[in-house]
Design goal:
The protein has 194 residues and is α+β, with helices and mostly antiparallel strands. 23% of the residues lie in helices and 26% in strands. The protein folds into 2 domains: 60 residues, 434 Repressor (Amino-terminal Domain); 111 residues, Jelly Rolls. A hairpin with a 2-residue loop joins strand 5 and strand 6.
Length: 194
């Protein structure tokens, strides 16, 4: 995993290229102004949900944020090393953002197929963040190994291997591994979100 990726510098460059001030980006992304400043200065490492919300303000996916130059193989088949890494460059932040690592790897070009399929690995304590995700999509997933706590609106359930979820992503939601073991999930989202 590459922890040398400078999230702050990359975000600042993208914000500047879009001609936005920190305050304008914060308003577009519906996050506090200080959050943009803290991320750009690398004072905090954003959770997946927070980073995705910020990137929505500049209209960029996580795939384009982390690997904008990467050529995505056309498929229809993909080797393990051809999956697009969306998260390993996000450092763990234990301040209200979970303590475990998570890795989301995307299969193929989500935009061209209008479908994002992910192989998700949640280490113990991994959490998408206290800020609930919410986006105009539908998503579902199947727990292959371990346990996954899924929050959808006011409902919370711990799913175990062999169980699944499917919901309208406009409902606020969150994913967390509450166990002491690794959790693996295969998920899909349309239209793509990350």
């Amino acid at each position: 995993m590459d922890f040398q990726f400078d999230i702050g510098a990359r975000l600042k460059a993208m914000r500047s290229a879009a001609g936005l001030s920190q305050r304008q980006l914060a308003e577009r992304a519906n996050v506090p102004h200080a959050q943009i400043s803290n991320v750009e200065k690398n004072k905090v490492s954003p959770s997946v949900s927070t980073l995705r919300r910020i990137l929505s303000g500049v209209g960029v996916s996580m795939a384009d944020f982390f690997e904008p130059e990467r050529e995505v193989p056309p498929g229809p088949f993909f080797e393990a090393d051809q999956l697009l890494d969306l998260t390993s460059k996000i450092a763990v932040n234990a301040i209200g953002e979970g303590t475990g690592r998570m890795a989301f790897r995307q299969i193929g070009d989500a935009r061209s197929h209008n479908l994002q399929i992910l192989h998700e690995v949640y280490e113990p304590g991994a959490d998408t963040g206290e800020t609930l995700l919410q986006h105009p999509s539908s998503e579902g997933g199947y727990v292959v190994e371990g346990e996954l706590e899924v929050t959808v609106d006011s409902e919370i359930r711990v799913l175990r291997a062999g169980e699944a979820y499917l919901f309208d992503s406009r409902q606020p939601h969150r994913f967390r591994n509450p166990s002491d073991n690794r959790t693996i999930v295969i998920s899909a989202c349309t239209p793509p979100y990350l």
